[in-house]
């Protein structure tokens, strides 16, 4: 199907010259308004900081994937906000791809780093949630290590008698001399006491 003639209406009726001129003016006006809207959108996109958009998306991800605290907003609301921010970022990125390719490369790298951080955050969140659902009795215990052949070849008896005295305790070489000296000293003391008793009875 080709373009419809401006001299006829949608139903195929012929249009008078006044309506044709009005239609042409309307068409030019719409085209002009479209250019103005595109200029306004470009100016708005240039006014947005793409790195700031990434920071806002990171903040939303931290709220969504926080295992310790439930998000204050609904999950659907968070996803919609992140989707809109990401779409805005991509429009800004495509704009700079045409006007400033070097800056567009930096934005591409920043977006890649953001996606990696978001993936790690999501994996950590899922691991914590799985760990919370696991019961302690469901965790398998490790197997006992098998005894080596070298140790099993030499059986160790279980009834080994313990020593009664310390094996490191040494007997002093002066023990007998000390005991003999103490015995003599005791005899001398007893003898002196007996002599004093006899002298006391005799009146000395």
From TrEMBL:
InterPro entries per record: Wbp11/ELF5/Saf1_N
Keywords associated with the record: Nucleus
One GO CC term, this protein: spliceosomal complex
Residues spanning the membrane: none
Bias (Polar residues): 1-11
Keyword Nucleus attached: yes
Domain of life: Eukaryota
Chief location category: nucleus
Lipoprotein recorded as keyword: no
Location of this chain's protein in the cell: Nucleus
Segment forming the signal sequence: none
Region of interest (Disordered), ranges: 1-33
A biological process from GO: RNA processing
PANTHER family cross-referenced by the UniProt entry: WW DOMAIN-BINDING PROTEIN 11
Protein name: Wbp11/ELF5/Saf1 N-terminal domain-containing protein
Record organism: Dreissena polymorpha (Zebra mussel)
């Amino acid at each position: 199907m080709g373009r419809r003639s401006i001299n006829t209406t949608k139903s195929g009726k012929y249009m008078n010259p006044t309506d044709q001129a009005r239609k042409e003016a309307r068409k030019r006006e719409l085209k002009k308004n479209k250019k103005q809207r595109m200029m306004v959108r470009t100016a708005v996109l240039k006014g947005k900081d793409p790195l700031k958009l990434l920071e806002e998306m990171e903040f939303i991800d931290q709220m969504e994937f926080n295992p310790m605290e439930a998000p204050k907003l609904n999950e659907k609301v968070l996803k919609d906000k992140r989707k809109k921010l990401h779409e805005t970022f991509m429009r800004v990125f495509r704009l700079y791809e045409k006007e400033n390719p070097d800056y567009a490369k930096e934005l591409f790298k920043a977006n890649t780093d953001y996606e990696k951080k978001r993936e790690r955050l999501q994996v950590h969140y899922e691991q914590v949630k799985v760990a919370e659902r696991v019961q302690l009795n469901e965790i398998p215990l490790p197997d006992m290590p098998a005894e080596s052949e070298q140790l099993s070849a030499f059986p160790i008896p279980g009834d080994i008698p313990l020593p009664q005295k310390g094996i490191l305790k040494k007997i002093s070489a002066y023990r007998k001399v000390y005991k003999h000296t103490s015995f003599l000293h005791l005899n001398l003391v007893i003898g002196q006491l007996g002599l004093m008793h006899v002298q006391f009875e005799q009146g000395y």
